[in-house]
Design brief:
single chain, 497 residues, binds ligand BES, binds manganese (II) ion, binds zinc ion
Length: 497
């Protein structure tokens, strides 16, 4: 999809479709009013006849409107004007895409961007419009034989900017949003691919494709032999039971000055999590193909960053492995030595994410990072605590945590802090090694982060548990592309400083 910004009058566009909002009850938005005036009251006449009340999400198509140059007009109900906030803006934009999908309109002019949204500026509306539209158009049909899902005619959307002086800022915001959407689509594709296709080797291959496409991107992939030599005993313990070799994928993007310390992103890349010997119950186990959602978000963000050519240095690291039961698999009670030298008693082989991450987190010390953020579908407990609305954020540096929380609020890809108090560390005590890999039932998300915190003492670090946000279960089962919007907002706002 191509997006552009323009500052134009809605009645003077030779467009396949003009989109404008109507508030409850029957109150025309500025753009709808302008259309109404130009068409001799055609819009208000229809609305008065009772065809459009303005209820949020309602859609009304108008064809052959006299004195209008466009092929059609699409009116979108926006609900009560006083209640028009960020959720409403996203809802009406989503309703618009839903309506457009089912038509032949290829090139449309969207004037919903003129609607005032409480607490947000034009740039925010443009970014959200692009993300919501791309989200509504995304389909994953790589594995459907025969007819692909309904082809959509929509090719180009012009987003209106009421005041022409905002055009440049608008175009920049849109470029950022388009790159973010591109990254999200990659994240979703990777996470939607089944475990028999999306293996650690596949992730490494995808990283190779990225490196080929973007010259600012370098790549290094460590294989099991190299990891063995380094002493990554925890990561390798996870992959022991699998026929698929583990990979440590290091993508190095240099868009900043040589002296700029890099932001390091580390993603959990369990391409399938059976639980290992501590095997999971069968119900919905298929969803554990998404257990590389953190890795997919790292890869998507690296793509977006390279596409945008953000002027900063960013390193993306993916700890990729498959967690399987086997004769060779790690057993409960096994003790391994991590890259840090600390020993871990693996009491539950299903707590494998922290095991691959701890070695990757030690590995990234060598990059002398400014900050490190890891992303992981780490705990079911996170879904119990926060549901599917927010990522959990925990870490050892308040300002970094606040940056992530702010990026979450601004992007709508929200995060919520959980405490990492010392008292929780006691739950990880082991009688036989430096620590256990599980901390019992209470505060599962926190004790998982406690485990990671023992490997991140040398730098500023935050952890995002994305178990609840990275995918949807049920009828709409599939990857969401989160938390790429949060990460892009986080990174972009670091550039401005
Ligand atoms: N990948 C899972 C966490 C998960 C579960 C994500 C459900 C999304 C949906 C992780 O590897 C895991 O199995 N965690 C265990 C930890 C426990 C053994 C301490 C969990 O959450 O049950
Ligand atoms: Mn697990
Ligand atoms: Zn897992």
């Amino acid at each position: 999809m191509e997006f552009t910004v323009e500052s134009t009058h809605p009645a003077q566009q030779r467009s396949a479709c003009i989109i404008a909002g109507v508030f409850e009850r029957r109150k025309l938005s500025a753009a709808a009013k302008a259309l109404d005036e130009a068409t001799g009251g055609a819009i208000s006449a229809l609305v008065k006849r009772g065809d459009m009340d303005g209820e949020r999400g309602q859609c009304l198509w108008l064809h052959h409107v006299p004195n209008d140059l466009a092929d059609r007009i699409l009116l979108i109900g926006c609900g009560k004007e006083r209640e028009f906030g960020e959720a409403a803006f996203r809802q009406v934009t989503a309703a618009m895409v839903g309506a457009l999908r089912r038509t032949g309109a290829d090139q449309v002019h969207n004037y919903l961007t003129d609607l005032p949204v409480k607490g947000h500026d034009l740039e925010w509306k443009l970014v959200q419009s692009v993300l919501v539209v791309e989200d509504g158009l995304y389909r994953f049909d790589e594995f459907k034989s025969g007819k692909k899902s309904d082809l959509v005619a929509l090719k180009r959307m012009v987003l209106n900017v009421a005041d022409a002086k905002d055009l440049e800022a608008g175009a920049n915001a849109m470029a950022r949003a388009s790159a973010t959407a591109l990254g999200m689509a990659l994240t979703r594709d990777l996470a939607n691919r089944p475990g028999n296709v999306c293996t650690p080797t596949h992730l490494a291959e995808q990283a190779r494709q990225l490196k080929k496409a973007y010259k600012d991107l370098k790549l290094e992939v460590l294989d099991e032999e190299e990891m063995e030599k380094l002493g990554m005993g925890a990561l390798l313990a996870v992959s022991r039971g699998s026929e698929q070799p583990a990979k440590l994928i290091v993508m190095d993007y240099r868009g900043g000055k040589k002296s700029d310390k890099p932001v390091v992103l580390v993603g959990k890349g369990i391409t399938f999590d059976t639980g290992g010997i501590s095997i999971k119950p069968g119900e919905a186990m298929d969803e554990m193909k998404f257990d590389m959602g953190g890795a997919a978000a790292v890869m998507g963000t690296m793509k977006a960053v390279a596409e945008l050519r953000l002027p900063m240095n960013i390193i993306g690291v993916i700890a990729a492995a498959e967690n399987m039961p086997d004769g060779k698999a790690t057993k409960p009670g096994d003790i391994v030595t991590t890259l840090s030298g600390q020993t871990v008693e693996i009491l539950n082989t299903d707590a494998e994410g922290r095991l691959v991450l701890c070695d990757a987190l030690t590995y990234v010390e060598r990059f002398d990072p400014d900050v490190v953020v890891d992303l992981a579908t780490l705990t079911g407990a996170c879904i119990i605590a926060l549901g599917h609305q927010a990522s959990a954020v925990l870490g050892n540096h308040g300002p970094l945590i606040n940056e992530l929380l702010a990026a979450g609020r601004h992007s709508g890809d929200r995060a919520w802090e959980m405490p990492l108090w010392d008292e929780y560390q006691e739950q990880l005590k082991s009688n036989f090694a430096d620590m256990a890999n599980i901390g019992g039932r209470p505060a599962g998300t926190i004790t998982a982060a406690c485990f990671l915190s023992r490997f991140t003492k040398k730098y500023k670090w935050a952890h995002l548990d994305i178990a609840g946000v990275a995918w949807k279960s049920g009828k709409e089962k599939g990857a969401t592309g989160r938390p790429v919007p949060l990460l892009m907002q986080f990174l972009a706002s670091r550039v401005k400083d």
